[in-house]
Amino acid sequence: MPITWTIGILVSGLIAPPESLLLRDNPNDQGRAIFISWVCPQTESITGFRIFRACSLPGKFIALNRELIIGTEYLDSDTMLCDGVPYYYFIRVYSAYDSVDSPVSGPVVSSAQWFNTDRINVLVLAIIINGLFIFYLLRARHNTRMFIRKINGLDAIDEALGRATEMGKPVLFSFGLGYITDMVVIAALPILRRIASKTAQYAVRLIVPNSDPLVMTTAQETVKEAYTEAGRPDLYNQDNISFLTSDQFGYAAGVDGIILREKPGAIFWLGYFYAESLIMAETGHSIGAIQLAGTTETTQLPFFVAACDYTMIGEEIYAASCYLKPEPIMLGTIKGEDFIKFLLIILISSTVFLGTAGRLLANEAPFLNNLFMAIVNWFIPKS
Amino acid sequence: MSSDLIGTWLAATLTLAIFSFLYRDNPLYRAAEHVYVGISAGFAVIYAWAFDVYPMLVESFKVHLGAKNYFEAYILIIPALLGVAMLLRSIPKLTWISRWPISFTIGIGAGLGLIAAIQGYLLPQIFDTLRPLININNAIIYIGVITTLTYFYFSREHKGLTGTVARIGIIFIMVAFGASFGYTVMARVSLLIGRFYFLFHDWLPLIR
Amino acid sequence: MLYRTGPLILVFGTALLLIIAFFIPHKPFGDLEARFLNWYAIISGFTFLLGLDSLARHHLIKIVRREKGWFYSLLLVTSLFGTLFWGLYSWIRYASPFALNAPFMWLYKFMIIPLQATMFATLAFFIFSAAYRAFRVRNLAATLLLIAACMVMLGNVPIGSSIWAGISWLIHQIFPNTNLEILKRWELFAAAKDWLMAIPQAAAGRGIGIGLALGGIAMSLRIILGIERTYLSS
């Protein structure tokens, strides 16, 4: 008799079956999933587990995993699983030579939930923030006097356009690789509109190369409307607001080509940009154009700051978008934003000081640290 | 094998053509640029139809119809109509129809944007800032976040206390931008080395 | 109704449904986000035909009118339609345009990839020209940006530690009481890089991030409520 086989018999006698098999409907999901966990009293010499399921007792149990799993948790989201049906499970533990079964556990029923409790923090913040915004919007309808600080680069739009006109050069506007679903692209549209109405007035050519056809069509409508409003629909040429390519560097190559050949006097980079930002902005600089940039993609802001004359940092582009609108209601949300920022500064400060006090007085007042941890944990984003 | 050889020569020519732009605009760069835009635009169209429109619309419709899942099959008429509505823009009198699909996509952006801003930005950023001031680094993070936020305060002039705090904020922002800038340099240089390796190893076997 | 109100209601309805669906896993809300994103991809696919029309028309006009640079336009149009032809041919012949042995993938491998990689690599030059210009601007912001950039860059490259070894030696020569080995091990540039990235960079990033989140929510709300409607050109 081979020695390994003999040892195998000895070892097999040592495997303990899995215990405390816990079955529950997987929470916060669309249903058809059961979460199973168990305890394995012994971890040595175990090669893995296999989970078995049946829909009645006594009934035929089927194995759910072909490959053995190592952990002591399993999410059964098998396509055959149905909501509302009682299921029974047991776990088989394997060693190199043998296997042992846990007792059968069940029944458990899966179901879909009507509310995802993991997302309650998002819901609470959404209600508070939007509630405050709506409050400020309503207030702004009656309040026409509102102060907004100078936004870097916004005043430079007219200066840049003026210079392009003086030199008789065209103006270039790019949304970068932004999609129509990006809020920054929607925020850039009123700025494009303002630029378009000026270029219509000054009879300067406005070129808008696009990487997304949906953005292109929206830009065409915006520019056309601005030209009509300025009384120069004759100057509008759809061919100037064209599609290039959606390839990141293909777009950069194409825009660089336009910059080198058309030599625009002013360039506006307002939208969503990735690594290509610097290639385009440096080419723009090389031909001596005044450049104004603004993006919400923070990784690209350093490059725009280095290469452009004016850069709108982060949310400044959203504020600029509101600023250009004549309606006072638009400024309401900026007021609201500032108030929420103020609240956040207070919230962050008080929580940070609470946490500091909690650490310093860990023995005297342990509840301070517990309260701090509770607040911090509330802010953890869950799936 | 010969097609690979032709391919390598073509790739090398295009690589040199693009690099030639660093000197100045020239016919070789122009040619490469136009070829690049043309090929990549064509590629994007094929990609969009092969990976999105055909499987999500045509195949999905067939599969659901085959499985007698009529709701899932016929609901696909909505995106198909919205897609066709986009194409109707080409007819001047029907341009307005494209406002519907555009509005639908902007609605998706606004809905997801609102939730994603809270779930993806606000919660993690606040969570990461809530650290007790028990060491100098935590204190710097706290000051950095508060002062940067103050810089983005729009409804008050940056004068007096607000002005001072906002100025500290812009110092943080500039140091952060500098750090990101410096961090990227090496990555870009290694890309350049990668291209030179292609030229001097794959194309002209000068490097072994 | 068809021109203005309808589209505004559609924006409002779509956005509201997605917001509700985020909190409700139960059918029919649970898979609504994925469903709408699929629809968006389908609409986008159709819109690509408009993009194709725009690009081709722009260059065909140049060719027909023999405008300056028409030959390059001819190259573009040929590449565009050639790619479409090979794509469709590969799709029919090999069941997928992206089949590994399809001619379409040859275009990808030997033309698109090298073009992408080379354009990306030109950034190595541009990043230095931008840094050089930032160096010449003499204000506090640009100086801070540049100092931080240099520290992180030196901390990131092998030469940084050699430079630090040199500086350590110099310090040791001036102050012979210092321990050269301890000084060398201190690796100022690498330490400065780690600290700058982990502390001030993260702090400013969070401040900007919180602001962006609020700006984004406000923007979304203005769109949902129909206050921002430039996209409808009104």
How would you characterize the overall build of this protein?
The complex is a heterotrimer of chains A (about 375), B (about 210) and C (about 230). With about 375 residues, chain A is of the alpha/beta class. Chain A has helices at about 5-10, 120-140, 155-165, 185-200, 215-230, 250-260, 275-285, 300-305, 315-325, 330-360, 365-380; strands at about 20-25, 35-40, 45-55, 60-65, 75, 85-95, 100, 105-110, 170-175, 205, 265-270, 290-295, 310-315. In chain A, the strands form three sheets. In chain A, strands 3, 4, 6, 7 and 8 form a five-stranded antiparallel beta sheet that branches. A five-stranded parallel beta sheet of chain A has the order 10-9-11-12-13, with helices on both faces. In chain A, helix 2 packs across helix 10 (about 330-360) and helix 3 (about 155-165) crosses helix 4 (about 185-200). Chain B has seven helices and no strands. Chain B has helices at about 1-20, 25-65, 70-75, 75-85, 100-130, 135-150, 160-205. The mean pLDDT of chain B is about 90. Chain C is built from ten helices and no strands. Chain C has helices at about 5-25, 30-65, 70-95, 105-120, 125-135, 140-155, 160-175, 180-185, 190-200, 200-225. In chain C, helix 6 crosses helix 7 (about 160-175), helix 6 crosses helix 9 and helix 9 runs parallel beside helix 10. Classes of the chains: A alpha/beta (about 375), B mainly alpha (about 210), C mainly alpha (about 230). The interface between A and B is large, with 71 and 61 residues.
Mean pLDDT figure of chain A: 90
CATH topology of the largest domain in chain A: Rossmann fold
Calculate the mean pLDDT score of chain C and round it: 90
Give the amount of beta strand of chain A, in percent.
15-25%
Please state the CA-atom Rg of chain A, rounded to the nearest Å: 32 Å
Can you tell me the residue ranges of chain C where pLDDT is under 50 for at least 5 consecutive residues?
none
Q: Cα-atom Rg of chain C, whole angstroms? A: 28 Å
Query: Would you list the SSEs of chain C in sequence order as H and E?
Result: HHHHHHHHHH
Our count of domains of chain A comes out at 3
What is the straight-line distance between the termini of chain C?
14 Å
Low-confidence stretches of chain A: 1-12
Protein name (chain A): DUF6754 domain-containing protein
Organism (chain A): candidate division WOR-3 bacterium
Domain DUF6754 (chain A): 111-357
InterPro entries (chain A): DUF6754
